[in-house]
Amino acid sequence: MNALRFDVASALPTDWREGLFLGRIDRGAGPTPVLISSGTVYDMAMVAPTVADLVATGALDPSKGEPIGDLEALGVDVAPSATERLLSPIDLQCVKAAGVTFAVSAIERVIEERARGDAGAAASVRERLEARMGGNLRAVQPGSEEAARLKAALIEDGMWSQYLEVAIGPDAEIFTKGPPLSSVGHGSPVGIRSDSTWNNPEPEVVLLVGPDGRAVGATLGNDVNLRDFEGRSALLLGKAKDNNASAALGPFVRLFDDRFTMDDVRNAEVTLRIEGQDGYVLDGTSSMDQISRDPTDLVKQALSEHQYPDGFALFLGTLFAPVQDRDEPGRGFTHKVGDRVTVSSPRLGSLVNTVTTSRDAEPWTLGIGALMRNLARRGLLAA
């Protein structure tokens, strides 16, 4: 396949000139926060040196920045040698994720658990579980009396699971997907562990939340998941989720305004396409109107007895469940190196990445200390 490039027409929504977008570009000296308004890119580094600072101070006004050109004419690209290199749109924010927020994903997690991470055993487990539960789970309100009754019935049948607890119980699953500065952006390789044999992408909407707990916008994300690791034990969640290049976000954060609101997130259609170098193609869809918990409730649960002084990004979960066989009948889907993964939504654009292993992905070297040293050299840390 051809090397990935950044193309405005395919990466951004059709109404992108009417929206306000937030992101980061490396202009040669280091990461620079930018705003895009009416098609023009504004360098915001002299207003606030990081995206986290821009959000925390509420300085999301492009007129305060330096206009550097129209996005289509600027020549932004994803190659390391690009003059204007596109980066992940967040920086100092912790990368959080909500899991098992859709009924289908809950069922798939139970399957992983019962199959002990063995893809070959998944088909028979799926058949037994769906026959036992029917469509009940999809209609249950988490934390409700009906949920408690269903839990009691499934326990009696020997079919209860820790994944069903977070699917229909009062408490959502909120975990740390990755530390600050660890996410990759549009066009960068996305990583799976080299020792994983059963894994998949998770196409999601991601909220950007400020330190005051207010969601300021949304972007697209790929929450790469290792089904074999997490299926063997939920205690391996860290290894299944937090690996080099395993969290992709972008291309930009679309900020909320009169034309784009939380209701657009609630009603978003997120599509997925996987194109393998072997000719394999898989298409999937995640409809946010099927989510079991409202996005604002997930933000609230993430903030319960926890503060995020630099804000956080929150993956909202996915309806997508990859059960289409790739190689052997009954073994479902797993990635191969070189797969091209495209996550799209009409109001947010498209996030495109190719699959590599976390071992072979570009090493993560720009941590918080390195970023602060870079900003100091550029004179951006002055009061």
UniProtKB/TrEMBL annotation:
Domain Fumarylacetoacetase-like C-terminal, residue spans: 170-355
Residue intervals passing through the bilayer: none
UniProt-recorded Gene Ontology molecular function terms: hydrolase activity; metal ion binding
Keywords of the record: Hydrolase, Metal-binding
Protein name: Fumarylacetoacetate (FAA) hydrolase family protein
Protein family according to the UniProt entry: Belongs to the FAH family.
InterPro entries: FAH, Fumarylacetoacetase-like_C, Fumarylacetoacetase_C_sf
SUPFAM superfamilies: FAH (SSF56529)
GO biological process: small molecule metabolic process
Coiled coil: none
